[in-house]
């Protein structure tokens, strides 16, 4: 991917990385024509095997394209506290619709606007959840299926592909991880320092803590309330909430077992694209894999600019349509 930010947002360093992250998320358009083109999702609620539920948002191909069978289905797994309304999710929706593809965004537990029922949430290595979702989607779709994961969703998708091995290629044609923290310890340290701690960590915890406290009302005694309220970074939050609720001994155990980077060298069954900007404020360039650290099925794109799930383009205030366009062309090649 030969990405260069527009002049009004250009730059390689940390400042530019932050601007290229924050501006697109808040102000850029999802569609290249800068219009407010709606995404007409149709929501389904699925009961999970453990008695919980997830909400899944579909945007089927336009009626004119529905006669084309079998149609590809593009599945997007969102990032931490994301949803089908995230700027990147809407951008991929428009791209898929323009291709005549079906599109779907499954929500991780508690991310669709309603608290889930079970004593669990979601995490960066939630591969069992992804396996169940993809297999259920495959049962209801006749054409090829391709999966994109963004940030946390991308790391979890890679972990699924790594654990599934050859079976993954029977479920999807290809997987993509965008701006994913494939080294969770390095990303956790980065987001817990300086500007990142004051801006991004605070933003995430302002969303995550109330959900965790609501979960505690559902299940009194589930975790230490005082410790959760006192947590000031993702390390502390994960130690109190994410790790123990999902079967990990500690934050260190969770981050070590769920990082996708070590398993990249063994990937040879399903084509995988791993895209990380080298000025991503969440994912330090020093922790990104080299070509010698990945298996033959893995393609690395590591442009110098782009920020975290930013990759803005066009005239002010910009749009984020170039990201799905570039990733989409790679996906088409896998078909």
Structural write-up:
This protein has helices spanning 14-26, 87-99, 127-139, 152-164, 168-171, 184-191, 194-218, 225-230, 234-245, 251-258, 322-334, and strands at residues 42-47, 53-59, 73-77, 102-106, 145-150, 174-178, 272-275, 298-301. The two termini are 19 Å apart. The protein has an eight-stranded mixed beta sheet, with helices on both faces. With 335 residues, it is of the alpha/beta class. The protein is built from eleven helices and eight strands. The protein folds into two domains: 7-183 and 266-334, Alpha/Beta hydrolase fold, catalytic domain (Rossmann fold); 186-258, no CATH class. The model has no long low-confidence stretch (mean pLDDT 95).
Question: How do the helices and strands line up, and which of them pair or pack?
Answer:
Elements: H1 14-26, E1 42-47, E2 53-59, E3 73-77, H2 87-99, E4 102-106, H3 127-139, E5 145-150, H4 152-164, H5 168-171, E6 174-178, H6 184-191, H7 194-218, H8 225-230, H9 234-245, H10 251-258, E7 272-275, E8 298-301, H11 322-334
Parallel strand pairs: 3-4, 3-5, 5-6, 6-7, 7-8
Antiparallel strand pairs: 1-2, 2-4
Helix pairs in contact: 2-11, 3-4, 9-10
């Amino acid at each position: 991917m030969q990405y260069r930010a527009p002049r009004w947002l250009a730059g390689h360093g940390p400042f530019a990385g932050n601007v290229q992250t924050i501006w697109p998320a808040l102000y850029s358009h999802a569609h290249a024509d800068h219009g407010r083109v709606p995404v007409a999702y149709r929501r389904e609620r699925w009961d999970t095997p453990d008695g919980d539920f997830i909400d899944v948002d579909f945007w089927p191909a336009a009626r004119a394209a529905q006669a084309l069978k079998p149609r590809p289905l593009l599945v997007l797994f969102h990032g931490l506290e994301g949803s089908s309304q995230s700027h990147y999710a809407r951008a991929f929706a428009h791209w898929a619709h323009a291709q005549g593809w079906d599109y779907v965004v499954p929500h991780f537990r508690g991310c669709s606007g309603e608290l889930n029922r079970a004593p669990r949430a979601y995490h960066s290595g939630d591969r069992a959840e992804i396996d169940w979702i993809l297999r259920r989607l495959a049962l209801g779709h006749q054409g090829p299926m391709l999966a994109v994961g963004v940030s946390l969703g991308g790391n979890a998708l890679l972990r699924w592909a790594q654990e599934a091995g050859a079976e993954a290629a029977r479920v999807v044609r290809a997987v993509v991880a965008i701006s994913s923290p494939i080294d969770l310890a390095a990303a956790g340290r980065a987001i817990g320092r300086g500007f990142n701690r004051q801006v991004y960590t605070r933003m995430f915890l302002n969303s995550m803590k109330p959900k965790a406290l609501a979960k505690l009302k559902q299940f009194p005694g589930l975790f230490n309330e005082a410790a959760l309220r006192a947590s000031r970074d993702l390390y502390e939050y994960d130690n109190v909430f994410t790790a123990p609720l999902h079967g990990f001994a500690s934050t260190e155990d969770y981050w070590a077992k769920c990082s996708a980077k070590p398993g990249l060298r063994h990937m040879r069954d399903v084509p995988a694209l791993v895209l990380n900007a080298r000025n991503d404020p969440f994912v330090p360039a020093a922790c990104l894999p080299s070509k010698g650290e990945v298996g033959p099925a893995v393609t690395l794109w590591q442009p110098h600019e782009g920020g975290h799930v930013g990759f803005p383009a066009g005239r002010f205030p910009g749009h984020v349509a170039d990201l799905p366009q570039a990733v989409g062309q790679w996906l088409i090649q896998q078909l």
